[in-house]
Specification:
Helix content: 55-70%
Shape: rod-shaped
Distance between the termini: 11 Å
Number of strands: 7
Largest sheet: 5 strands, mixed
Radius of gyration: 45 Å
């Protein structure tokens, strides 16, 4: 069954990259959409300006014809009103200082033309053919330049859209391939490791069952013979050595059994302060022999968690004994218990030993990995599994001031996870 950590490890990078690409695409789409809208508005304004200029030139030609014929009346008046309306529309549709200047010239010339029509003569015709027509043609050229610029901007925006979408698509494809490759490789490694561990677990369980019963019988016989040897005044050292070695073998076999078939937690409300204090008391004798100063720092109030006290105690024993192994010539072992603001609990085991080799940090919790000559490499994996069965976590770091720290985190009482 997939655990939460495994799901995060597999799906986390994919979800994160998907979110990044979603935000990137949305931002790019908004930016390009705004640029496209701006260029379309600019192009519409330029085309409108050109249409207005074309109408101005058409009215101008009509006014010139009227001036040449000497006719006037209602026809000229209607053209005057239309021309004035076009000038007002040009004023509202200005696209820059140059167009504003040219519209000013047109308005000034048209005002002179209207003033000239009040008196007889050809002055009005001259104004139409020179000042007004010249300004209108310059406005037409300026509108054409603005149209060309707007069209170029639209082409650039379209090109950016094409390249942008192609770039995002290529990046998304490459990232998807890389993430998919990484996830598949990671899953393959985990599947292979799980299969290997399952096989090893089955072998270990069978071997432990086959050996534990004979060892128990041998141990009982050795104990009986050692008692008889003591009563008869005979040396019992050899039998004591045999008994100790049998005890070591039983301890190793029990470790294999615990790894192969972990027991389900027996849930109840536990005061972690009391559990930790009782567990550390078991290690106080060895700590004193090694000249290790063992300190427990805890809150004054009880720290309640929903857990299996025996299994949590076992985790603490594993961590504490590992810390003592790292300080054979003395040191300090500080165990800190803290209640987090979110209700969760952190239990940290700090030592002043040499710390963990950085190249071993990532492998500490792998089954059968150990840096000890006489170790099996199962204590930390079993401890981490217990932590996860309780809905928590266990990880290790090297302390900046020296030594190692193992941090056990357990969830709040109301949210403690129970395996089904």
């Amino acid at each position: 069954m997939l655990t939460r950590a495994l799901l995060l490890r597999v799906a986390g990078p994919s979800l994160l990259m998907s979110l990044v690409f979603l935000v990137s695409c949305a931002a790019a789409a908004m930016y390009l959409s705004r640029r496209q809208a701006a260029t379309v508005r600019s192009l519409d304004d330029s085309l409108r300006s050109r249409r207005i200029v074309d109408d101005l030139l058409g009215d101008l030609d009509a006014l010139v014809v009227i001036a040449l014929d000497g006719s006037g009346g209602d026809g000229a008046s209607g053209l005057h009103e239309h021309f004035r309306g076009l000038l007002d529309e040009s004023r509202r549709n200005l696209q820059g200082a140059d167009e504003a200047r040219l519209v000013d010239r047109l308005e000034a010339g048209f005002a002179q033309y209207l003033a000239s029509t009040a008196a007889p003569g050809r002055a009005g015709l001259a104004i139409l053919e020179t000042e007004i027509r010249a300004a209108a043609r310059e406005l037409d050229l300026e509108s054409a330049r603005e149209t060309a610029r707007a069209q170029a901007a639209m082409h650039r925006t379209a090109s950016w859209m094409v390249w942008g979408l192609a770039g995002v698509g290529a990046a998304a494809t490459a990232a998807g391939l890389l993430i998919g490759y990484g996830v598949v490789r990671g899953l393959e490694r985990m599947v292979i490791q799980a299969e290997q561990m399952a096989g090893v677990g089955q072998i270990a369980a069978g071997m432990a069952h086959e050996l534990r019963n004979p060892l128990t019988a041998i141990s009982m016989l050795v104990q009986l013979q050692r008692e008889k040897a003591q009563e008869g005044g005979l040396p019992a050292e050899d039998l004591q050595v045999i008994e100790q070695e049998i005890g070591r073998m039983e301890e190793r076999l029990n470790a294999f059994l615990d790894f192969a078939r972990p027991a389900r937690p027996r849930w109840r409300l536990v005061d972690l302060v009391e559990t930790t204090a009782q567990t550390l008391a078991l290690m106080q004798g060895r700590a004193s022999k090694q000249r290790v100063d063992l300190k427990f720092h805890s809150p004054a109030a009880p720290v309640l968690v929903e857990a299996d006290a025996e299994q949590i105690g076992r985790v603490l024993i594993n961590l504490g004994l590992n810390a003592l192994d790292a300080m054979p010539r003395g040191g300090r072992l500080d165990v800190e218990l803290e209640q987090e603001p979110d209700g969760s609990v952190e239990l940290t085991v700090n030592d002043t030993g040499p710390g963990v080799d950085p190249k071993h940090l990532l492998r500490l919790f792998e089954p059968f990995f150990t840096s000890k000559e006489a170790g099996l490499g199962l204590g930390l994996p079993i401890s981490q599994r217990i932590a996860r069965d309780h809905g928590g976590s266990l990880h290790a770091v090297n302390r900046p001031e020296g030594g190692a720290a193992f941090i056990l985190r357990l969830p709040a009482v109301a949210r403690a996870a129970r395996p089904v």
